[in-house]
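Consider a protein example.
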Amino acid sequence: MKRAERQYALVDLLRGARQPWSAARLATEFGVSARTIERDVGSLQLAGVPIYADYGAAGGYSILQDYSLPPLNLSAAESLATLAGLALLESSPYQTAARRARAKIAAVVNHEHRGSVQKMLETTYVIDAGAPTDDTVPLGILSDAIAAGRLVRLTYLGENDDGSRNTTLDTDRDVETLGLLRAADAWLLIGWCRLRDGIRGFRVDRITRLEIRDEVPPVRDPALLEADLARWPTRRLI
């Protein structure tokens, strides 16, 4: 059994268990070492699966009872599309939520489809425009700020004509968050820039500092954003 298949099966077993399962018992069940089970549990926890340990003679691993989804009855193609779509959000401002959702969907994929779905996911590759660097802000912060309708203060990288960084052009901006835009190979924060007194798009990979302020700005006329976006062939996700 492959590692991913074992982890799916592990989640299924714990979801249906009435009592905690010890690492030793799980190791026997899956024919691996207790250390392997501990690594699997650690990986699942990092992915957002709410597995916790009960200590004592009758202790072991359990999963939160509300960690479940109703039967989705997805076909193999639908399961693949859903999991692949969530995986593509790994480099987006929704990465943390996408990881949790992916783990939940993977846990309820039809047993008959898991092998083929996993094989397709393992043989699908993505070339990202650029890996996040240590001086970029955590992506999840942006979606939180937008959902709360908060003002953000950010530092934005300046660029020379050849795309190299020009620190003399770095600016601090107060921005009223309006939304997110996927443009070609980059995610942009859309907002009303108080420095420029207008709507601007800020590439996420060029924001080096972001502070969520206490201020909740008044709502801007939606027509302003619609008019700005009308310059490009944009669409809403829903």
